[in-house]
Design brief:
Layout: E1 7-10, H1 21-33, H2 42-46, H3 51-61, H4 68-86, H5 93-102, E2 107-111, H6 115-124, E3 134-136, H7 137-140, H8 148-157, E4 164-168, H9 171-179, E5 183-187, H10 196-202, E6 205-207, H11 210-214
Parallel strand pairs: 1-2, 1-4, 2-3, 4-5, 5-6
Pfam families: HAD_2
Protein name: HAD family phosphatase
Organism: Blautia aquisgranensis
Amino acid sequence: MLYPIKAVIFDVDGVLLDSLSIWRELGRRYITKLGYQPVPDMDEILFPMSMEQGAAWLKDIFSMEASEETIMQALMQQIESYYFEEVQAKSSAEELLRELNMLGIPAAAATSSPREHVRRALERNHLLPYLQKIYTTSEINASKYSPEIYFTAAEFLKTRPQDTLVVEDSLYALNTAKNAGFQTAGIFDPFGEPNQAQLKEKADVYCSSLNELLNYFG
């Protein structure tokens, strides 16, 4: 159940953008492009690693001559190209944002991804005009284990936490917002939160898609 909402703060990856798959497929995409054959379970092996760890693993497993720094730069370039050119909006994202706009409910984005990546992807998918502001954890200088990014966005939107809905696909971020007094919506993404049962339990509302969340406003 949601109480009257005066503003919405959206996570981007896995909520507005269907972008989480790149983080699981990144290593395989990279080595396939170079002509190597993927090894079994490499997506699962690489997924929890940092970029530095992943570059070191790829260099070792595939006996690559390139330095770890060169590999890491190539991976980062691949991510940038994905956001700039490939990533699509989540189903019903534009419809939901348009409905909020028609209702006079302002929206902002709060993301852990680089600003230019998400800005370009949101713009290409026609979502950017509906968002009054984009906040990034690097610019706030605090991860989503801290509620600072949500407080900053709510202050800009001129709403109190209890009147503001935070939409997240990850359990830790949703818990941060909820513990800070925000209303919360948990969104399912097949590449996102592994503990969907806990996400469903902790969220004020749990939705399998943005279309389902749209029903709360439409």
